[in-house]
């Protein structure tokens, strides 16, 4: 009998009708359909033509570009008039046909064949539908007319959506389609599937007698048995326990499919499929957020639905790209700022694994109660089954209507917690952009779960990776911290058809992404990738007694490091005949939040190489990060260089016009007799315009009383030390080979300094690029040193201004762990080496920037090319550099007595010979 019943249910399933879908528009920005269109204002106004649907009409050459903060952005009466003719299958005549819109900005007045489809829909980011069964013609063409108002007739909608800190677009920007259902059909399904295996579904139907559900795993195999329930009015609950399901998390995004079948009088009439995941989200007050019983910390970012050529109209391909970018940065969470996303984005978060905070729109303004009540219901009913959604956001930064809070639980079968981003609310402290000292101090003294939904506001090259290491280490160690969310993923730069297709970020308003408008990767991208790596390497210096061991910490939540893969490479940067060697390391068996030792078995010849790279790969076989560990020291590189130089005649020197004029192996130098500064350089091919240095930054150039002598065949020109008058000293050595050594010993003038080092002049117009050994290829700041690798890097000159132009990596800026650099010029190259560890190379000065708060001010020393022992940090839109944490503070050095043995020292070697 049981087998016979199963056979009948299976047969009925095969005979049941599925929901049929006919798209009237395209499915996204990469698949559109042309509709008739007229815009009533702005570009190309008041003439009928065609437009791609879905789209934002500004990006199609219509209307006016508006950034939400502009004073006139909500004054326009701009409307778009859409027409589209379509047919429907004749066999739909006896079906229920819904006309579905996934998103329209902002008010949508819909007519079918001249008759209203229903009330005007207000609210841009929410899916809505009309039952148009009685309005359709099944024997000919149908006319769909949609009048779209860019700004709403409902002032609360404008307050919540149209006055925000982002671009304001108009149009039918998400897909439009018809769905045909049998007269007896399933209207709605909501699933709550717990980590315990308990499965509960709410099914709404207009009629019918029985409902069944069969689960399938990711491979299509049946999971468990068919479960049935009798229909009880409009709302039926169907429940069943399942044994040992594979759980959903960001690290293991296991999905199942539930197939629901509705029966009427013993006949299967409608079947609907829903994807879901077994997982339990639990918020424990004064403790944290638990996923499947494990406390998690969010490594998150805020993300707009955006692409520079299509605005808010995106595609599944773009959603995949965005999620892959986040996963590649080792993020595990994303906040929908500041509205619900396309469904395909949530689909991708489900399948690839990201925790999502889904948000009702609101930014310093909120919906009124009637409108907000409707939109909360639309948002939740549309998105309820996505396992990626772990929390609901009721607006943002003051855009919270408290009267709507109870509606989230009322509409959500999973009863997910609702938060107010920017407020201390409902057991969460989510306040934004707290300065490190105040914020961390307050967090550690508080009692609520700490989860800033925006912290470290990226702006140009500031924020994001700058300061993140300080914040994150505190977040990681604080039991009440649930992590946080950076602002934000991508620069909102619009390709403006009215400005010769240039990219417009509305000046500084949209220039706050980790990646550029077309996903160009900034330096912070890689800093975040390393800082948020779930495999955390303890700092390690490679010395002669290195035994191949690294101390590592497992910062995953669910993954054992034994499930990861580790590869290593030994590389010589200078000896090209020494072949690279690589191998694997046994992954340590260590549970999440535990420490272990990673052992690498290196060959006996490992000391002959220059650098060791270690790469970690996750369960998905994608790189987590690659760390680099220099084996050689800068002094070794300098020594090798000096050993390659040939012997020659003793340098010559004469005094001429208050300058030492020196000649050695074709190199001619002039050094000022009194100051010791380099005045000019020549070789047999001509001038090298590297001069006017060393100028000591944030210290006095009190070099004095220069003398000259020979040490063997080497010429030495040196200043004299005097504790009161000339405590900073300079020495030049000119070798017979033509190599020039410079040694500066100096004392910074202040206890706190932004700069420690020396500067030289070089005309920027004559630089073509550099080949340098050190960490690269991205520039650094004092509070953003992570993300690079040690190697030899070729950098072509560019004049990129971060988030204003996007030719990354930028050329100008600071570079860490400098060993050597060959400067490629329009005339002839020259090379500089050093003995110093931890030296920074500075290349020229980007355009100066400031803001009304003086938070974001990139600081650079005088001169053009510098060699620094201390560099400044960088601020952001919301914080000064020094308030982002200890790494953001100034450099500290003080020696009141001016003891020459304790002075800072920089040693450089210059090769100005023909190269």
UniProtKB/TrEMBL annotation:
Residues annotated as domain Glycoside hydrolase family 2 catalytic: 287-408
One GO cellular component term: beta-galactosidase complex
Key words of the record: Calcium, Glycosidase, Hydrolase, Signal
Domain called Glycosyl hydrolases family 2 sugar binding: residue spans: 49-182
Cofactor needs: Ca(2+)
GO MF assignments: beta-galactosidase activity; carbohydrate binding
Catalytic activity: Hydrolysis of terminal non-reducing beta-D-galactose residues in beta-D-galactosides
Pfam families: Glyco_hydro_2 (PF00703), Glyco_hydro_2_C (PF02836), Glyco_hydro_2_N (PF02837)
Signal peptide per UniProt: 1-16
Boundaries of every Glycoside hydrolase family 2 immunoglobulin-like beta-sandwich domain copy: 184-279
EC class: hydrolase
UniProt key word Flavoprotein: no
EC number(s) stated in the UniProt entry for this protein: 3.2.1.23
GO annotation, biological process: lactose catabolic process
Subunit description: Monomer.
PANTHER family membership: BETA-GALACTOSIDASE
Family according to the record: Belongs to the glycosyl hydrolase 2 family.
The name this protein goes by in its record: beta-galactosidase
Taxonomic classification: Bacteria, Pseudomonadati, Bacteroidota, Chitinophagia, Chitinophagales
């Amino acid at each position: 009998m049981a087998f016979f019943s199963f056979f009948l249910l299976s047969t009925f399933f095969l005979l049941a009708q599925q929901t049929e879908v006919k798209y009237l528009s395209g499915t996204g920005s990469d698949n559109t359909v042309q509709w008739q269109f007229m815009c009533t204002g702005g570009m190309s106004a008041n003439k009928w033509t065609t437009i791609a649907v879905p789209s934002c009409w500004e990006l199609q050459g219509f209307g006016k570009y508006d950034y939400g903060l502009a004073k006139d952005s909500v004054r326009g009466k701009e409307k778009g008039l859409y027409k589209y003719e379509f047919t429907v299958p004749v066999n739909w005549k006896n079906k229920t046909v819904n006309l579905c819109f996934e998103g329209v900005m902002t008010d949508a007045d819909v007519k079918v064949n001249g008759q209203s489809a229903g009330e005007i829909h207000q609210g841009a980011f929410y899916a809505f539908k009309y039952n148009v069964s009685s309005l359709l013609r099944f024997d000919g063409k149908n006319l769909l007319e949609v009048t779209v108002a860019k700004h709403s007739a409902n002032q609360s909608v404008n307050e919540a959506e149209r006055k925000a800190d982002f671009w304001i677009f108009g149009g039918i920007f998400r897909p439009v389609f018809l769905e045909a259902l049998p007269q007896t059909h399933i209207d709605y399904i909501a699933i709550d599937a717990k980590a315990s295996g308990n499965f509960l579904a709410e099914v709404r139907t207009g009629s019918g007698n029985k409902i069944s559900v069969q689960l399938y795993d990711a491979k299509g195999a049946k999971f468990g048995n068919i479960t049935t329930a009798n229909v009880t009015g409009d709302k039926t609950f169907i429940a069943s326990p399942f044994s040992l399901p594979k759980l959903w998390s960001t690290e293991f995004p296991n999905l199942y499919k539930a197939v629901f079948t509705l029966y009427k009088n013993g006949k299967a009439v409608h079947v609907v499929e829903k994807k879901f995941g077994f997982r339990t989200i639990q918020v424990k007050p004064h403790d944290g957020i638990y996923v499947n019983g494990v406390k998690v910390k969010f490594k998150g970012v805020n993300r707009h639905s955006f692409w520079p050529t299509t605005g808010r109209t995106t595609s599944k391909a773009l959603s995949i790209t965005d999620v892959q970018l986040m996963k590649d940065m080792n993020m595990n969470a994303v906040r929908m700022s500041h509205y619900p996303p396309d469904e395909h984005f949530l689909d991708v978060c489900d399948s690839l694994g990201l925790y999502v905070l889904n948000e009702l729109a609101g930014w310093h303004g909120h919906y009124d109660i009637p409108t907000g009540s409707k939109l909360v219901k639309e948002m939740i009913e549309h998105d309820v089954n996505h396992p990626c959604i772990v929390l609901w956001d009721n607006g943002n930064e003051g855009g919270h209507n408290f009267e709507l809070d109870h509606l989230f639980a009322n509409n959500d079968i999973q009863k997910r917690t609702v938060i107010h981003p920017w407020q201390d609310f409902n057991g969460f402290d989510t306040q934004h952009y707290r300065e490190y000292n105040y914020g961390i101090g307050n967090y550690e003294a508080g009692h609520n779960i700490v989860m800033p939904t925006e912290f470290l506001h990226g702006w140009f090259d500031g924020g994001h990776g700058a300061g993140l290491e300080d914040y994150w280490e505190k977040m990681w160690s604080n039991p009440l911290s649930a992590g946080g969310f950076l602002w934000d993923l991508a620069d909102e730069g619009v390709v403006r058809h009215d400005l010769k297709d240039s990219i417009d970020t509305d000046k500084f308003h949209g220039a706050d992404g980790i990646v550029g408008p077309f996903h160009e990767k900034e330096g912070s991208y890689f800093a975040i990738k390393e800082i948020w790596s779930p495999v955390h390497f303890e700092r390690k210096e490679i010395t002669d007694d290195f035994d191949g061991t690294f101390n590592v910490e497992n910062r995953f939540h669910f993954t054992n490091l034994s499930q990861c893969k580790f590869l290593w490479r030994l590389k010589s940067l200078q000896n090209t005949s020494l072949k690279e060697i690589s191998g694997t390391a046994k992954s340590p068996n260590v549970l999440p939040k535990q420490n272990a030792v990673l052992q690498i078995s290196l060959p006996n010849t490992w000391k002959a190489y220059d650098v060791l790279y270690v790469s970690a790969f996750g369960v998905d076989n994608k790189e987590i990060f690659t760390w680099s560990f220099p084996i050689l020291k800068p002094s070794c590189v300098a020594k090798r260089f000096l050993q390659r130089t040939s012997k020659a005649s003793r340098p010559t020197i004469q005094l001429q016009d208050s300058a030492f004029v020196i000649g050695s192996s074709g190199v001619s130098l002039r050094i000022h007799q009194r100051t010791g500064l380099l005045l000019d350089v020549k070789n047999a091919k001509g001038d090298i315009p590297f001069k006017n240095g060393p100028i000591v930054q944030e210290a006095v150039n009190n070099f004095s009383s220069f003398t000259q002598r020979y040490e063997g065949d080497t010429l030495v020109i040196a200043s004299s030390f005097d504790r009161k008058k000339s405590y900073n000293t300079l020495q030049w050595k000119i070798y017979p080979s033509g190599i020039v050594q410079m040694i500066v010993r100096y004392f910074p003038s202040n206890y706190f300094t932004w700069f420690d080092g020396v500067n030289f002049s070089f005309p920027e117009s004559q630089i073509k690029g550099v080949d340098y050994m050190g960490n690269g290829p991205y520039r650094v700041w004092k509070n953003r040193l992570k993300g690079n690798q040690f190697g030899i890097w070729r950098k072509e000159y560019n004049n990129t201004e971060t988030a204003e132009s996007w030719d990354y990596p930028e050329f100008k800026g600071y570079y860490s762990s400098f060993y050597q650099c060959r400067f490629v010029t329009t005339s002839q190259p020259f090379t500089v080496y050093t003995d110093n560890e931890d030296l920074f190379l500075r290349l020229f000065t980007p355009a100066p920037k400031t803001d009304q708060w003086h938070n974001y001010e990139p600081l650079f020393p005088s001169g053009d090319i510098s060699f620094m022992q201390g560099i400044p940090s960088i601020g952001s839109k919301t914080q000064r550099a020094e308030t982002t944490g200890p790494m953001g503070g100034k450099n500290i050095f003080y020696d009141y007595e001016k003891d020459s043995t304790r002075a800072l020292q920089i040693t450089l070697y210059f090769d100005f010979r023909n190269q």
